[in-house]
Amino acid sequence: MTSEMVALMNGIEKGYSPKPNFEDGVLNQAILEAVEKSAESGRWIKVPQFMENGRFSRV
Q1: How far apart (Å, rounded) are the C-alpha atoms in residues 50 and 30?
Q2: Average of pLDDT values for 33-39?
Q3: Mean pLDDT, rounded, for 52-56
Q4: DSSP string covering 17-57, please?
Q5: Sign of the four-CA dihedral 32, 37, 40, 45
Q6: Per-residue model confidence as pLDDT tens digits over 3-15
């Protein structure tokens, strides 16, 4: 827990977002939802594209 706080404080001081961050959580949730839908239907489910030009974008 202490190392996470240090990473957060360093990120605030130096202007970057430590990993994992909110964007990682959103992508993880999209993948988990696709896995669940795939298991229910027995079919492949496409995961929405969240990244454009290497940056997070709204869907």
Answers
A1: 9
A2: 90
A3: 56
A4: --SS-HHHHHHHHHHHHHHHHHHHHTS--PPPP-EETTEE-
A5: negative
A6: 888 888 898 899 8
